[in-house]
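Issue 218. Parser rejects a valid record. Input:
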Amino acid sequence: MALVGLAAAPAAAQERRDHERARAALEAGQIRPLSELLSEVERRFRGRVIEADLDRDDGQWLYEFKILPPNGRLFRVEVDAATGQLVRTFGPVQERGTAEQQPPASPARPGVPATAPSPPSLADRR
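Output the parser choked on:
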């Protein structure tokens, strides 16, 4: 039981440092608030964000979002934390609108109505 407590202590300390780094970057204007970017990601992609991580890669702050779509095939997106621009994606990405769009209806032929008239009823024949 004591080993579990010892293993959890470094993880908690790392999480605290990560939180402090994120707060400092936000206060310095280097990144946008997570809540703003989270809203944008959820509007753009199908599914629910189940994890978000902030990392600094070659001087650039990046948010990585793990998204679970309705089909259950997890995918990830990396977003520039300062601008909100999509940097890269991993896995079977599902953007809203692309999978939900219906194919356009075929255009009617010239001179032919788009809907055919209904056949005459028996009452019309009298």
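Fixed in the parser; the record now loads. Residues 33-96 form a domain with the Nuclear Transport Factor 2; Chain: A, fold (CATH 3.10.450.40).
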